[in-house]
Amino acid sequence: xxxxxxxxxxxxxxxxxxxxxxxxxxxxxxxxxxxxxxxxxxxxxxxxxxxxxxxxxxxxxxxxxxxxxxxxxxxxxxxxxxxxxxxxxxxxxxxxxxxxxxxxxxxxxxxxxxxxxxxxxxxxxxxxxxxxxxxxxxxxxxxxxxxxxxxxxxxxxxxxxxxxxxxxxxxxxxxxxxxxxxxxxxxxxxxxxxxxxxxxxxxxxxxxxxxxxxxxxxxxxxxxxxxxxxxxxxxxxxxxxxxxxxxxxxxxx
Length: 253
Prior knowledge:
This protein is an all-alpha fold. The chain has 11 helices and no strands.
């Protein structure tokens, strides 16, 4: 039985949330000097899936508030984090409840969801790059296009691998846990993009930007969004299994 079982929010669960909050704060602080690179997505996703929805949401709220003591209390940032991260923890907490049998037997909804998410990310990245939609400096545009092409290639590769693996799992009746990696990586990429888009809406509203300034703010955050999306896909794809195993082993009573 894991810490996510049951409804009582015990002292053990509070301790888990406190440790995880400290880990998230430390991880974000250490990597804050490298723009666009973060590991909070991986850690919170695995924690929410392992420890349960309640622990995930509580940790997300605590992390969102405590980080303000390091980077300052800005109303737009507080609102952004208090909206995004609890919702993120809820999503991955719910996905953590999906059993392996759901992938090996049936799983039509999961098949459609993963394909839809990966296709949307790949298509958006392709459109931005192929049609040169970023009309700013050449150096900035070249970097953004290179990152967008990388996300397109990675999403397309994940799409092909997922469909091939899904067919294999349906035939062999095993390997459903691997498909969960694709589900988490796809959801993480969508959530990361939504984080930046939500920021692009909230910050101009709180600060009172003009439409032209808001558009410039969007372009300024574009490279960070692409880097974070790429980081989220890669970290989930390669570190999901070891991190989940560590957390599941740690949360056993």
